[in-house]
Amino acid sequence: MNHVIIAGAGHAGIQLADSLRTEGYSDRITLVDAETGLPYQRPPLSKDFLAADGTPELVPLKARKFFADKDIELVEANPIVSVDRHERAVTLANGDRLPYSALVFATGARTRRLVAPGADLGGVHHLRSADDATRLRSELAAARTVVVVGAGFIGLEFAAAAVDRGLDVTVVELGPRAMGRAVSAQISEYFQRLHAARGVRFVFDQTVSAFEGDAERVRAVVGGDGRRYPADLVVVGIGVEPNETAATDAGLRTDNGIVVNEYLRTDDDAIWAIGDCARFPCRHAGAPIRRESIQNAVDQARTLAATLTGRPTEYHHSPWFWSYQGKTKLQIAGVARGDGPITVVGDPGEGKFSVLRFDETRLVCVESVNHPAAHMAARSILSTASPISQEELAIVAFDLKLAARLSRTA
Ligand code: FAD
After folding, report:
1. Is any ligand 1 atom within 6 A of the Cβ of residue 47?
2. DSSP 265
3. For residue 152, what are the domain limits?
């Protein structure tokens, strides 16, 4: 009998199991995870879960009944520790050995750690799992002065929640601007001002050399230039690293992610990788990349389900992403490559606008603030094969909804 083993019951793994059943796969499916309990959604952990008026409850990806109804075995708190590619079998942490006909790594990523003296003091947090978020939330109640290391999405979502609770918040960032690797200068500046207006202090171009503390608890973050930033709670949000150890140990190619082809297959005919842990050739980025988003996890899972059920399908979905920072929603469609021409549509002063980013010839990315209709239109335009240029968009006065309608009927 065929047996698909999925390592990781996160967004990608759960979607794959679900889509395999939808596609008509009727043999055995086993989902193996390192964590305990029902698999849950990660995005709320830095948003609602921490907000003063939010709900500190985990949002399950599926109810317990789903696994019984769909005949999917869920193995909890028992990660895959090794893969015998010759015998096509995995070994779990408890020593159990399971044979597979197809093995899928959907192992996600873990937070990158800052290597500095005092990094393991009490009060220094990372945010990836339900346990991380629960610990952080319980300490937020007594905290007064917070330092966030890293002005990326998670750092800023947390900063918004902390300042909402009346805490004193300083964000220390290595680069020159907020979310610098992911968004245009216009969006960086907009969000920096938004957070600053609510009381968040920003320190850019600053490294962290140490965490100081007393009685095992952090009291300050020390910058590379010796400046000290007082803190009784610190959140380090400096990115993630893929969970690829079992793949590397099995001799599969890894390079900041498990290397796969357009079909999401590794060099081994029976082994695949999807979601945050996979490094795949991305047509939109023009290079092999790893992408960390729900869209990517879910769409790669659906694509792979088609392949595993006899319809080989390449993965070329146009990417999109969202982030909530306080009450402000940022949505990004597409991928910008470098600093091409930009057109701003709408009014940043009114808190509702989009930044349209072009390469030499076509629209490649749209970043929308509180502008969901523009985001949806951008996704529609960017998913079509025919590129649309800045000149063509100018003809319709940069009305993305109209342009989307026209490109559908073209
Ligand atoms: P994961 O969801 O990380 O799941 C991987 C699973 O594999 C984990 O449960 C892990 O325990 C398990 N595992 C690891 N190693 C093994 C092993 N050896 N054997 C078995 N199991 C293993 N994305 C957005 O698009 N929008 C957002 O607003 C957003 N907000 C986020 C907020 C937070 C706080 C976090 C942490 C992430 C956020 N993301 C957001 C990113 C998004 O959650 C990830 O891209 C998504 O979870 C990736 O899904 P995945 O299934 O690849 O990995």
Report:
1. no
2. B
3. 113-238
